[in-house]
Amino acid sequence: YRWSFRIGAMLCLLGSLIVYFGTHEDQSPPQIKTRNRIGLRDVFMVKGFVVAVLVMFGGHFGNSLINPAFPLIVKEILPEARLLNSITGLVVASTAIAAAISSAAVGHMGDKFGQRRVLLACCSLACIASLWHYWAGTLTQLICARMLFGLAVAGTLPSANAMIHAMIPRESLGKAYGLANSLGTMGVALGPFAGGYLGSHAG
User: Fold this and answer.
1) Would you say 149 and 130 are in contact if contact means Cβ atoms under 8 Å apart?
2) Alpha carbon distance 65, 197 (integer Å)
3) How far is CA 117 from CA 109, 179, 180, in A?
4) Taking the mean position of all CA atoms in its chain, how far away is CA 127?
């Protein structure tokens, strides 16, 4: 298991080197009109911003909520499985693969059909996929449910970000995106904790 951390550390180091040698940033301060800047409190008050943040939080929370239970679910479906960790990794990877495909495709659909419509469709699809997990009785069904969930949840992120971009003044976009990502990522932190607690007390 320790090799996983070593590989992760090497990939992070490689990313740092690529950024250092492969990118250039002009650090001269841009000429920004301060009249269009808004504070953090004003960002919260912008109509629709909190909704977009809640969608991002819900996606991260729902995606990570079940992670602590995956080994137990796989073991229940395949009680004689010897490669439990590898199978669990396959289930988790299927979500990420579907999400990678979905983000680009759904982002294009949002530009074509409207972000609000796409966001509603993805949230509804994520709800259906979540319910599917409950009735998944085979490994194939579980992987299909995870892939459908990954497609739906990943599709909400481009639309939510596009909505934030449309409602926040350009001069305050960095502030708004930082705040939205910070609050949304709280779902990643709270999801495994809540999932572990539910698994221990509710089964």
Assistant:
1) yes
2) 10
3) 10, 24, 21
4) 15
- Contact criterion met (CB below 8 Å) for 179 and 40: yes
User: Residue 77: exposed, middle, or buried by beta-carbon count in 10 A (0-12, 13-18, 19+)?
Assistant: middle
Summarised one tens digit per residue, pLDDT across range 138-168 is 889 999 999 999 888 888 888 888 888 888 8
| Tokens of residue 180, six digits | 């939205």
Rg over CA atoms, the chain: 20
Integer angstrom CA distances of residue 69 from 104, 173, 195: 29, 37, 7
101-138 pLDDT, tens digit per residue, is 888 788 888 888 888 888 888 889 988 988 888 888 88
Are 52 and 160 in contact, with CB atoms under 8 Å apart? yes
Distance CA(148)–CA(54), nearest Å, equals: 21
Do the beta carbons of residue 160 and residue 60 sit within 8 Å? no
Tokens of 67: 């992670």
Q: Which of 139, 190, 172, 150 is nearest to 37 (CA)?
A: 172
3-state secondary structure of 11: helix
Could you identify the residue written with the tokens 């708004």?
A: 176
Token readout for 7 is: 């590989």
